[in-house]
Amino acid sequence: MKTKSLLRLAVVALAGLLASCNNYKDFTYLQDATDFDQMQVSQLAQIKARKGDVLNIYVSSRNPESAIPFNLAAAGYRPGTGQSDQFTQASRALGYQVNESGNIEFPQVGSIHVEGMSRTEIQEYVKNQLMTKGLLKDPIITVEFSNLKITVVGEVSRPGNYNMSNEHTTIFDALGMAGDLTAYGLRDRVAVIREVDGKRTVVWHDLRSKNIFDSPRYYLQQNDIVYVQPNKYKASQSTQSRWNQPSVWISLISTAVSVATLIRLLTQSKS
């Protein structure tokens, strides 16, 4: 037993030595980028409204009181009571959820189809509706997405769900929020998983190359999943740690005893 334990330790030590001998290029980003290397920046991807998104829409005007009916929680606001701050906070706490038909219900306007529209497009549409219907002469519309999030999993320091800080969050932003890749993460096997209209796509990226900037998934969208694949050494570690668990050995011993008992009983019955 002692010999087997020493052999196991030797194997682990050898694996660790081989891992430490990995070329440093396995851990560096953008290896083919040079100083002042000019790359054309592709057009920034725009976040488009999807089913389930929550939109905060604020309507203001030169006459603040005329805009009150078009803001959520307006019924709780009483002009002249000094509660404007409370009203603002209440409005921001609520939002318009895009339903399964891709619509929101906007005060005095009715159903508005917003699915597939950007923040700017929604602003212009609501503004035009209010003016066309004679509801407000000089509306100023502000639209915000309030529940944008991404998920980062795999070989990163802090896997989990993260709120998108802006509409132009990149792969590097996501990895930065998750504490960067661990030493076991493959820099050339980083996937962005996206689901749109019931179809799921997976696109792999190599962070060691500047070509990452040309990826159609470099800019993330709401509900994207960023996955970092582990290297073989991490996989072997997981296998070793599984075999070192007492419960595994207890289960194996129990099974072996059961099989041996069954064989003995069968042998006795035949004799």
How would you explain this protein's 3D organization?
The protein is α+β, with helices and mostly antiparallel strands. Among the domains are: 92 residues, 2-Layer Sandwich (wza like fold), CATH 3.30.1950; 84 residues, Roll (Outer membrane lipoprotein wza fold like). The chain is built from seven helices and ten strands. The chain has a five-stranded mixed sheet. It has a three-stranded antiparallel sheet with strand order 2-1-5, sandwiched between helices. A hairpin with a 5-residue loop joins β6 and β7. The chain is elongated. 18% of the residues are buried.
> Radius of gyration from the CA trace?
29 Å
Count of distinct strands = 10
Major pleated sheet: 5 strands, mixed
- Indicate the structural class: alpha+beta
CATH class category label of the domain at 54-145? Alpha Beta
CATH third-level topology of the domain at 54-145: wza like fold
Strand order of the largest sheet: 7-6-10-8-9
CATH architecture classification name of the domain at 54-145: 2-Layer Sandwich
Order of helices and strands: HEHHEEEHEEEHEEEHH
Report low-confidence residues grouped into runs of 5 or more. 74-93
CATH H-level name of the domain at 54-145... which superfamily?
A: wza like domain
> Number of helical runs?
7
Relative helix content: 25-40%
Shape summary: elongated
How far the N terminus sits from the C terminus, by CA atoms, comes to 36 Å
Arithmetic mean pLDDT? 80
Strand-residue fraction?
Answer: 15-25%
